[in-house]
Amino acid sequence: MIAKTSSNISIIKQCELLSIPRSSWYYEPCLETEENLLLMKQIDRLHLEHPYYGVLRVQAELSTAEKPLNQKRVRRLMRKMGIEALYPKPNTSKPCKWNEQYPYLLRDIVINKPNQVWSMDITYIPLAKGFMYLCAIIDWHSRYLLSWTLSNTLTTDFCIEALREAIANCGTPEILNTDQGSQFTSDLFTEEVLKSGIRLSMDGKGRATDNVMIERFWRSIKYEKIYINVYENNIDLYLGIVEYVNFYNFERKHQSLEYLTPHALYGTEKKILTNAQLLTKRKKETKKEKIYSNNSNSFNLSIKKSTLAV
């Protein structure tokens, strides 16, 4: 909108024409400190162990005599991470004024085949210096992870991207279950779901057990991959998730599935490239680039067009 290198109109004049203050043009957002990033990792671990802990209990659990934590600081970081305590809230039946709410459709139904029900959610992923958000879709019956996307912002676009990819690779389910987050209740997302002929189901507020399959996957990937590796940047994180999803779908046997892999129960032939295979493929390709969507800041690793089924 504002041309920084324009020789005809100065920055001051351009700001005046657009009716915006110069301070908005020169402003650069402050990044979180190393101390806050470490605290966010601790909050994320604690939330996985005790999802019913609110701000006060998180503050009490992580505070020490040497380093007491401020309640406002903990609340701000939890909001930034999209984390809140899971508990029944007052007036939960009151619908949102702006977005349509959908009922929970999975109560008392028997889920006994692939593509009957998909489960979808977003979680916070820590990096060495920063963080990302991971959106994923899992098949409820087989626990097979169908698709996932990464983004540095909590927008709707990367959720739609994950849904389109899952449909392109695996067809459509009868029901898609999500929580009541603003990304999933937005008109853009709900229209994308309904036009595909999918029935939309939403958890009750504060009821993580309504979407238990994807919540269990978050615990698995964080404790088995994310927390034991320090990822320096988005590409390292992307490759690490590719490697883990491949292991999870094709090699990791589940006790609840009578020690079958999700792939064996789901029956797909599509396999995600391993980390080593991906790195080899990248070396052979001449065109390597990171793509950041102009709308959602979602991150993908592009190696021409024929890359990964994730």
Defining key terms:
about 300 residues, alpha/beta, Nucleotidyltransferase, domain 5, 12 helices, about 40% helix, about 15% strand, globular
Q: Total strand count, please?
A: 7
Main sheet overview: 7 strands, mixed
Shape: globular
What's the structural domain tally?
3
Strand sequence of the main sheet, in spatial order? 5-4-1-2-3-7-6
What is the SS-derived class? alpha/beta
From the N-terminal CA to the C-terminal CA, the straight-line distance is 36 Å
What is the CA-based Rg, rounded?
A: 21 Å
Based on the coordinates given, report the CATH architecture of the largest domain.
2-Layer Sandwich
Oligomer: single chain
Helix and strand pattern: HHHHHEEEHEHHEHHHHEE
CATH topology of the largest domain: Nucleotidyltransferase, domain 5
Share of residues in strands = 5-15%
Low-confidence stretches: 88-96, 269-278, 285-296, 301-310
CATH superfamily of the largest domain: Ribonuclease H-like superfamily/Ribonuclease H
The DSSP helix count reads 12
Provide an overview of this structure.
The protein has 310 residues and is of the alpha/beta class. It has three domains: 1-30, no CATH class; 34-81; 117-302, Nucleotidyltransferase, domain 5 (2-Layer Sandwich). It has twelve helices and seven strands. A seven-stranded mixed beta sheet has the order 5-4-1-2-3-7-6, sandwiched between helices. Strand 6 and strand 7 form a beta hairpin. Helix 4 packs across helix 5, helix 6 (157-170) packs parallel to helix 8 (187-194) and helix 9 crosses helix 10 (234-250). The longest helix is centred in the C-terminal third of the chain and has 17 residues, at 234-250. It is globular and about 65 Å long. Residues 88-96, 269-278, 285-296 and 301-310 have low confidence and may be disordered.
